[in-house]
Amino acid sequence: MTTTTRTPPKRTAERTARTGSAGRRSRREPQGAAWVFLSPWVLGAVVLTLLPMAVSLYLSFTDYNMFDAPQWIGLRNYTQMFTEDARYWRSVVSTLTYVVIAVPLQLGLALAVALALKSIRRGRGFYRSAFYAPSLLGASMSIALVWRAIFNDGGTVDDLLSRAGLDIGGWVNRPGWALLAVALLTVWQFGAPMVIFLAGLQQIPSELYEAAAVDGAGRWRQFVSITVPMLSPVIFFNLVLQTIQAFQVFTPAFAVSGGKGGPADSTLFYTLYLYDRGFTASHMGYASAMAWVLLVAIGIVTALLFRSSRGWVFYANEEER
């Protein structure tokens, strides 16, 4: 006769409760560990980013000179900025002109060098590092000062152009040329977008070029019909990134103009004028208002770029979506 042993209901309930509590602990433990590892980033984001942004937003509605307590003035900083400050609008025009000149030239040169490096078989790593080096050095004040000396009266560029019969003089002392000198410094720092372009070019299937060559397409036709469409997401990424950086340019303009934005405010970029209002004139409330307008402007420009991308950026999985 077979005897069946049954587990008492009370013991079964206790076992189920222990299993359930252990499962809940196992689910909680990874979350706790994740928060421990994320805590330095979260603390840094709150203390170094979110809190200063909140303080800056409050100061933009005050009259604050960094020595006395802030005095609430409402929208006066913004109304003064848009209706009374002529230098503010000159800084806006200078910045927009710089962005329109520097960003296309930089991306065009980066793409050209990336196409050249793609066809190089030997020494590609060396050339890639050599062309990337200006991106590491160009943001420093020392390089900006050297750039100013090169484009100053009697500098290297002035000497070369004089020998060629073009007596232009030093670019940094002429309103029509100073901004171009600053833009060329940015164009010279094309290493970062070049590396991104090179990575994108290496992802384009070679079969597409082979099929186009069989159909009789030349180099230019292959570039227009294959390279540009397949590389359009990378072009868009670099365009957004470099546009945002161009709106925030400061060091080259400060070094070339001596911190004044000259000559004739031709290099008075937005961030340089913001620095002048905040730290030279001690109008920190006004500078905070300028910073928030710049943030909103960059957000609008970025949104417009994303909206325009629907018509010219091609993604390989668009049909699947």
Question: What's the gist of this structure?
Answer:
The chain is mainly α and 321 residues long. 72% of the residues lie in helices and 1% in strands. The chain has a single domain, classed as MetI-like (MetI-like fold), CATH 1.10.3720.
Describe this structure in words.
The chain contains 13 helices and 2 strands. By secondary structure, the chain is an all-alpha fold. Helix 7 (175-188) runs antiparallel to helix 11 (251-257). Helix content is 72%, strand content 1%. A two-stranded antiparallel ribbon has the order 1-2.
Fold blueprint:
Blueprint (H helix, E strand, L loop, with lengths): L8 H51 L2 E2 L7 E2 L3 H8 L2 H33 L5 H14 L3 H10 L5 H8 L11 H14 L2 H11 L4 H9 L4 H29 L3 H7 L12 H11 L3 H25 L13
Antiparallel strand pairs: 1-2
Binned, the helix content reads over 70%
Q: Name the CATH class.
A: Mainly Alpha
What proportion of the residues form beta strands (DSSP E)?
Answer: under 5%
What does the average pLDDT come to?
84
Q: Tell me the name of the CATH homologous superfamily.
A: MetI-like
- Going by CATH, the architecture would be Orthogonal Bundle
Strand order of the largest sheet: 1-2
Main sheet properties: 2 strands, antiparallel
Would you tell me the structural class of the helices and strands? Answer: mainly alpha
Shape: globular
Tell me the count of domains.
Answer: 1
What is the count of DSSP helices, taking H or I runs of 4+ residues? 13
Distance between the termini: 66 Å
What are the secondary-structure elements, in order, as H or E? HEEHHHHHHHHHHHH
What is the CATH topology? MetI-like fold
Region (Disordered): 1-27
InterPro entries: ABC_transporter_permease (IPR051393), MetI-like (IPR000515), MetI-like_sf (IPR035906)
Transmembrane segments: 34-59, 96-117, 129-150, 177-201, 222-241, 284-306
Pfam families: BPD_transp_1
